[in-house]
Structures are given as C-alpha cells and as structure tokens.
Amino acid sequence: MKKNIDSLDKLALLSIEDISSIVGRKSRAVWNGMETKALALRASSIMESKNIKGAVWGSAEYPAMLATIDDRPYAFFYRGNLEVLRKKCVSVVGTRRVCQDTAVAALSFSRDAAIDGQTVVSGLASGIDSFAHRGTIQSGTDCSTAAVLPCGIDSVVPYGNRSLASSILRNGGLLCSEYIPGTPAEPWRFIQRNRLIAALSPATVVVHAPKGSGALVTADFALTYNREVVFHRAGLDGTRTGGLGQLKKSKEKSPDSMWYVSEGAPVIENYADYVRVMKSPPGTFSINRQLELF
C-alpha cells in the first residue's frame, strides 16, 4: 500500500473497492475515509507513545508463517522482540478453567520447549494460555513466547494479566495483534485471534479443551492451514473434558515412544513426546477434520 498511497488524504478518498484491490483481499467493511483517517492518526499517536511497531503483508518484517494463510491480516502490530517468530514455534492452547494437572502440563511443556529453543505462541488468556507463557519465563532462557491479543496491544485482555504481559516484554518476548492500537476486545475478535495463534506455528498443542471451547476452534484453524494438531494427555480425562475422545495405544507407536491416539490425533505426555511426533513421517496420524465431533 505504501507504494500506491503517499498520504493519508489520498487514502481517505479511496473507495472500498480500491482498498480491496490494494490489499489483495475483498473487504466487506463499511468505508468512511475521513473517519478512518482520524482513527489512523489516533493509532499512530498511540504507537509512538508505547513503542508499538507494525508490519504489512509483503514486508520483510511480516511473519513468514502468517503470510502462508489465505485470510492473513494485511497489517500486524507488535511490541517487544519480533525475532521470536523467526525461531521454531509451537502454539499451546487450552481452556480458562484448569486443574492442577493441566496447569502443570502447560507450564512444563512450554518450559521445556523454550529450553529447546522454541517459541511458544498462545493467547495470554487466563488458564492454560497463562501457564504456557509463564513456563517460557521460568525456563531460565530468553523469554521465547509470543502472546496474540484480541484487541489493540496498547491494552491487555484479560485485565488481570497485565503483569504477565509486562513480564513477557521485560524478558524479551512479544505481544502482537492484527488490530490497530485503540481497538477494543469484542467477542468475535477472540475467534479471529485464534486463527493467528494456529497460523504462527507448524503445530498446535491442545492441553485442555472441553467441547465447544475456543481451543478446539484454534485446532480446527490449524487443520485448515495444514498444520499439525496434538493433544496433551493431561487434559484428556473424561471428567475434565466432557468426554473429549477416547484414548487408545497407537498402532504406529515406536519402541521408545509413549504416544497414544485420540480420534486419530497424536496424544503426548511431555515435550519429548512432541518432538518425536513432529519427527514422524507425514500422514502417520490422521485426524477428524471436524473437531467438534469429538
């Protein structure tokens, strides 16, 4: 867009069809050029005051994994160390209502992933997401985690995780969002945020996900984007998940592995299992595309 528009005044005069052509995606938004100009000026002021940066699709800074999906955002805003997304990444998701076993599972998996040089991507929500981010901070290495927010990154949702967000930035991690600063969190934006969590990694690990949870929505996005989906055994107890699948030993199990299969998806017990799963030949595990059927 920078090559096509050299001022906000020119941008304000464009039609929605012009905008769709420039960004390479059809937009259904209601376009008010002057109102958008005012929002852009406000966002620019917030970005300058809070050291927020942005990358547009096609630029060198734009995350490579995000660029591969059809519904990628045109702009990507961030605070902190963008380099964490240039490392190997794994997305870790789960419900807000955790038990001790699943909290420990998310914490230890993410800690071990960070020690192994991976970046843990999650959504900074209460519950599993929070434990995943904390695990990377406890790893004793640079904070290799990226928190994807459902709002502008000048604010933190949930409010109670402001301290965790500060710790992520202070220890070299990343806060990011597709929304311009000043954008509030709304229910539908949480679902849109989940697609970015799925897109930013080659695999999504579901630690604890009752039926109908946002974590399963994230997993379904991952499948849509041809990413891997892996379940953690700690969260597959029927009393916690409402009967999310049945465990059985995998026929493809290797001699030194503890893998199981839940409805065709690999189930791990720790990070070492995850590494072995990711090294297995493509197609070793097949998963039901519609996760809500579990």
| Biggest sheet, spatial arrangement of strands | 1-2-6-5-4-3-7-8-11-10-9
- Overall geometry comes to globular
Average pLDDT reading = 83
Find the count of extended strands (DSSP E, 2+ residues): 11
Radius of gyration: 20 Å
Distance between the termini: 43 Å
Question: How many helices in DSSP terms?
Answer: 10
Q: Oligomer, anyone? A: single chain
Largest sheet: 11 strands, mixed
**Order of SSEs:** HHHEEEHEHEHEHEHEHEEEH
Report helical residue fraction. 25-40%
Beta-strand proportion: 15-25%
Q: What structural class should be given to the helix and strand makeup?
A: alpha/beta
Taking pLDDT < 50 over at least 5 consecutive residues as the criterion, the unreliable ranges are: 238-260, 287-294
Overview of this structure, please?
There is one protein chain. With 294 residues, this protein is α/β, with parallel strands linked by helices. It contains 10 helices and 11 strands. The protein has helices spanning 8-12, 16-23, 33-50, 100-115, 128-137, 162-170, 187-199, 214-224, 238-241, 271-279, and strands at 53-56, 75-80, 89-94, 119-122, 145-148, 174-177, 203-208, 228-232, 247-249, 260-262, 265-268. It has an 11-stranded mixed β-sheet, with helices on both faces. Helix 4 (100-115) runs parallel beside helix 5 (128-137) and helix 7 packs across helix 8 (214-224). The longest helix is centred in the first third of the chain and has 18 residues, at 33-50. Mean pLDDT is 83; it is low at 238-260 and 287-294.
